[in-house]
Recover the amino acids of this structure.
C-alpha cells in the first residue's frame, strides 16, 4: 500500500470520505482474488492521482453495517465521491484500470489532469514464459513452469478460472469424490499457480500482441517481453446471430445458467440447444424454473447418456425436436418470445416465455492474436503434438486449439504438455 492510501474504518468514513471534496474508496475483503487483482492497480493509480484525490481502503467484512448502508454487496467495490455524494460508476469484481482512470479523471480539474497524466510512464518487464489466458489450461501450464523454476507471467483480461467459473458443478474432474462448484475448482487451480510463483496480471486490458517478438502491452503502461508464449485464451459461447439476440443479450437472453438461472425461480424458460452443455445446464435451470422448453434442431440429443437419462426423469421439461429459432422478441421485463420453425413442415410459431438460454457451442478467442497463426476450418489454432503453433516459440493449449474433445481434463493435459516441452527447451 502506498503513502497516498489510507486504511480506515466506518468510524472514519464521515471525516475521510464524506467531508472531503473528492474521494476514492476501495471496499475489499480477505481471501478475495478480485481484490488482489485490484490492489496493484489501486496502488499504481494512487501514485498518479493521490496528490489530488484521497485514496481510501476499508475492510468490508469488518465494516458490514456501513457496507450494507451503501449497498456494497461484493468485493472489491470501488466508489467515487464528490462533495460527499456518490458520483460516477460503482465498480465491482474484476475492476479494469481504464474504468478506474475514467472515473477518477472526471473529478479532476484540467490542470490536475495534466499534472497527473505527466506521471504516467510506460515500463518493460522481461520473463521466460508469458501465458495468455487463465483457464485450466493456462493455470496448469503455469504450475508446471513455476515448479521448474521458470519465470512465468499469466495475463488475462478477466479473472483467473476461464469459462469453468460459470459452470454450476463439475462431477468428472479426477480427485474429487463429490461434485465441485466450477468457480471453486478454478479457485483451487489459480491459488496453486500463485503459491508456486506464477505472477498474475489479471482483469487487465491487452492493448497489443506481437507474437513474433513475444511482446504484449497491457493497460497502456506495461510492456511484457517473453522468450516463449503460451496461448490459452479459450473460447466463448457461440451466438445464433438472429434478430433480437444482440438487442436482448443480458436482458432476457442468457448464455450462462450459473449466472442467471436463479432469477427464474417459478418462471418459464426456453433453452436453445441439445448438446452436453445445453442438457447439463438445463438440469441446473430445472432447480429454479417451473417449466423449460428445449428447442433442438435434430430429432435426438447429442448430450451424454447420463445427462439425457436425468433429463427424462424431470416432469417440467418439454422438447421441440427438429425445430430452430428464427427470432427473439421482448414484450416487457420477464416477457420474451421465441419464434421457432418446424423443420419438417416449415411452419412458424411463437413460444412465449420469461427468459431464454442459448447453448449452441463455442467460438475460439483469437481476435487479439493477429492473422499470422495457422487455423483450422472452424477458426481454432492448429498445433503439433507438443502444442507448438505455426509461429516459432508460440504454443497454444486448451479450448482455443483444434481438438476432438474440449473438457477441463483435456485442457489440463494440454497445459502439462506445453509446459514440459518448453521446460526442455529453456
Amino acid at each position: 500500500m502506498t503513502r497516498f492510501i489510507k486504511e480506515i474504518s466506518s468510524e472514519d468514513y464521515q471525516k475521510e470520505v464524506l467531508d472531503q471534496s473528492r474521494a476514492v474508496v476501495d471496499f475489499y475483503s480477505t481471501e478475495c482474488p478480485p481484490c488482489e487483482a485490484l490492489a496493484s492497480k489501486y496502488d499504481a493509480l494512487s501514485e498518479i492521482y493521490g496528490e489530488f484525490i484521497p485514496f481510501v481502503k476499508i475492510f468490508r467484512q469488518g465494516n458490514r453495517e456501513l457496507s450494507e448502508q451503501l449497498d456494497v454487496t461484493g468485493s472489491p467495490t470501488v466508489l467515487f465521491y464528490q462533495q460527499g455524494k456518490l458520483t460516477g460508476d460503482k465498480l465491482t469484481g474484476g475492476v479494469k484500470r481504464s474504468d478506474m482512470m475514467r472515473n477518477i479523471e472526471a473529478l479532476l480539474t484540467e490542470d490536475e489532469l495534466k499534472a497527473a497524466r505527466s506521471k504516467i510512464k510506460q515500463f518493460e518487464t522481461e520473463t521466460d514464459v508469458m501465458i495468455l489466458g487463465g483457464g485450466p489450461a493456462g493455470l496448469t501450464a503455469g504450475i508446471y513452469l513455476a515448479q521448474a523454476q521458470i519465470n512465468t507471467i499469466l495475463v488475462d483480461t478477466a479473472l483467473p478460472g476461464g469459462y469453468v467459473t460459470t459452470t454450476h458443478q463439475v462431477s468428472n474432474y479426477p480427485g474429487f469424490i463429490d461434485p465441485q462448484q466450477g468457480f471453486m475448482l478454478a479457485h483451487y487451480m489459480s491459488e496453486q499457480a500463485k503459491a508456486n510463483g506464477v505472477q498474475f496480471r489479471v482483469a487487465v486490458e491487452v492493448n497489443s500482441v506481437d507474437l513474433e517478438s513475444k511482446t504484449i502491452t497491457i493497460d497502456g503502461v506495461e510492456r511484457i517481453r517473453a522468450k516463449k508464449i503460451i496461448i490459452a485464451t479459450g473460447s466463448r459461447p457461440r451466438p445464433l446471430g438472429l434478430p433480437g439476440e444482440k438487442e436482448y443479450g443480458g436482458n432476457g437472453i442468457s448464455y450462462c445458467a450459473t449466472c442467471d438461472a436463479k432469477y427464474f425461480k417459478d418462471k418459464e424458460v426456453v433453452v436453445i440447444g441439445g448438446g452436453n452443455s445445453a442438457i447439463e445446464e438445463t438440469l441446473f435451470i430445472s432447480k429454479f424454473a417451473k417449466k423449460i422448453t428445449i428447442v433442438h434442431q435434430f430429432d435426438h440429443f447429442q448430450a451424454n447418456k447420463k445427462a439425457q437419462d436425468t433429463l427424462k426423469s424431470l416432469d417440467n421439461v418439454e422438447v421441440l425436436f427438429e425445430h430452430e429459432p428464427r427470432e427473439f422478441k421482448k414484450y416487457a421485463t420477464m416477457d420474451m418470445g421465441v419464434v421457432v420453425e418446424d423443420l419438417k413442415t416449415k411452419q412458424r410459431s411463437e413460444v412465449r416465455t420469461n427468459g431464454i438460454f442459448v447453448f449452441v457451442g463455442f467460438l475460439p478467442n483469437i481476435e487479439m492474436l493477429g492473422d499470422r497463426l495457422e487455423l483450422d476450418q472452424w477458426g481454432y489454432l492448429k498445433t503439433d503434438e507438443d502444442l507448438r503453433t505455426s509461429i516459432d516459440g508460440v504454443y497454444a493449449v486448451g479450448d482455443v486449439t483444434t481438438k476432438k474433445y474440449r473438457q477441463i481434463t483435456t485442457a489440463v493435459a494440454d497445459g502439462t504438455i506445453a509446459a514440459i516441452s518448453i521446460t526442455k527447451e529453456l
The chain has a mean pLDDT of 94. The chain has three domains: 5-117, 123-236+363-425, 245-358.
